[in-house]
Amino acid sequence: MSSPTTASGAWYSTAGRAPTSQAAIARCTWGDVDHATVAFGMATPSGFLASTGVAGLTLGGGTGYLTRRFGLTVDNLIAADVVLADGSFVKATEQAHGDLLWALRGGGGNFGVVTSFTFRCHDLGENGTVIGGPVLYDLADAPEVMRWYRELLPSLPEELSGWIGVLTIPPAPPFKPVKTFGSPLVVGLRPMPFNVLQSAFDALYPAGLQWYWKADFFKRDLRRGDRRAHQVRRPTADRPLDYAHVPDRRRRQPVLAGSTAFAYRDGGWAGVIVGVDPDPANAGVISQWARDYWQELHPTSAGGAHVNFMMEEGQDRVRASYRGNYDGLVQVKERCDPENFFHVNQNIPPASGDSA
Ligand SMILES: Cc1cc2nc3c(=O)[nH]c(=O)nc-3n(C[C@H](O)[C@H](O)[C@H](O)COP(=O)(O)OP(=O)(O)OC[C@H]3O[C@@H](n4cnc5c(N)ncnc54)[C@H](O)[C@@H]3O)c2cc1C
Predict the structure, then answer these.
(1) Where are the domains positioned within the chain?
(2) Which of 52, 110, 307 to mutate to test the pocket of ligand 1 (most atoms within 8 A of CB)?
(3) Structural element, H or E, at residue 227
(4) Does domain 3-9+133-309 have CATH number 3.30.160.20?
(5) Is the CB of 162 within 6 Å of ligand 1?
(6) Domain spanning 13-126: which CATH class is it, in words?
(7) How many Å lie between the centroid of ligand 1 and the Cα of residue 104?
(8) Ligand 1 geometric centre to CA of 56 (Å)
(9) Distance between CA atoms of residues 147 and 231, nearest Å
């Protein structure tokens, strides 16, 4: 028997030195980047795991532990080296190929092969130490915990962040006592280097699993109908629902909103429903479960989704995800990839090839 619980990681950091920059080769994982920066007490905002690739996560936007405090990953992308479809090599910065840099800040792999990224780094405090870790509740409390988290977090300081997910505690002896605790069952918050927090859950998702995602952005005013959906669909370790808070930073940094292709800046949630399974025979089961769950929550959606969590959902969903930025992305696509050579992605076809 195993004990299903929800988990919420959280961290604090201190403000301090001026940011500096860090280059990452496109094949790196975020664990590689953390390894280079946390030793100096610095980090670039990325995701909630260390095993994710730098390139794909960055090009889609990037939500993670540091997003509330320092922005999306794309908000911290200063420059990118890119091989375009015609084989030419360019460096995209604010000063040169500024339109391409804008498009790479959320527009995905549509515009070329990025061979190197340069990011802004931020001070995390002494030795890169944050306070973080899991807080675990019984699955029966999940709807209440989710509602509390989603309603409270936006009003809390941006130094505090986390994610909410559903996991299964192994039945091994160290975890047995959690069943006898009250609620919450475990509070695992403690000081740790940021890269330790970021890699804490990597082992849950080793390479080689098959995944099926369904995603949506959600507004703040979520309907109570969610509660029923969570109870009926009963997310588990292999079938989690995760929410990442994407704060409204437009008032604090008005320029930011227009400087990236990432379009959802209203202050809300990037939600993703995930089916994970090692056995290809279960492909139909996990995809049907995710689609049904998504269908129930979709009426509360803000429209599109974080493209990092989308599969083949058609051109309308891609358009909805980029909102008013879509036409600008088409223009950059026309300039950088007029034949749509890079189309195995959340595709933004050049105007001539757009059949939607
Ligand atoms: C376990 C897990 C956890 C995740 N957690 C988060 C999270 O916390 N936050 C978040 O935002 N996302 C998260 N994601 C989603 C993740 O950002 C996307 O799946 C992303 O596409 C992964 O990028 P990759 O480079 O690892 O994958 P890849 O499969 O290598 O790339 C995905 C796509 O990115 C493009 N691409 C990749 N490399 C390049 C390149 N060099 N140049 C141009 N285009 C390129 C291509 O279109 C490619 O098809 C997670 C995914 C997984 C599997």
Answers:
(1) 3-9+133-309, 13-126
(2) 52
(3) helix 225-233
(4) no
(5) no
(6) alpha beta
(7) 13
(8) 3
(9) 13
Tens of pLDDT, residue by residue over 66-81, are 999 999 999 999 999 9
- 11: which residues sit within 8 A by CB, 6+ positions away? 65, 130, 131, 132, 159, 160, 161, 162, 194, 197
Cβ neighbours of 278 (radius 10 Å):
10
Quote the pLDDT of residue 170.
57
280: cis peptide before it, omega within 30°? Answer: no
Write the pLDDT tens digit of every residue in 97-110.
Answer: 999 999 999 999 99
Gap from CA of 178 to ligand 1 centroid (Å): 34
What tens digit of pLDDT does each residue of 114-167 get?
Answer: 999 999 999 998 789 998 888 888 777 877 888 888 888 888 888 888 888 776
Query: DSSP character for 132?
Result: E
Q: What is the 3-state secondary structure (H, E, C) of 248-270?
A: CCCCCCHHHHHCCCCCCCCCEEE
Query: Does 109 sit in the ligand 1 pocket, CB within 6 Å?
Result: yes
Residue nearest atom 51 in ligand 1 by C-alpha distance: 52
Kindly report the pTM of this predicted structure.
0.87
**What is the distance in A from the centroid of ligand 1 to the CA of 30?**
11
Residue 235 token pair: 């997310």
Task: Report phi then psi at 350, rounded to 5.
Answer: -60, 155
Beta-carbon contacts of 82 under 8 Å, excluding residues fewer than 6 positions away, are 89, 90, 91, 92, 97, 100, 104, 111, 112, 113, 114, 115
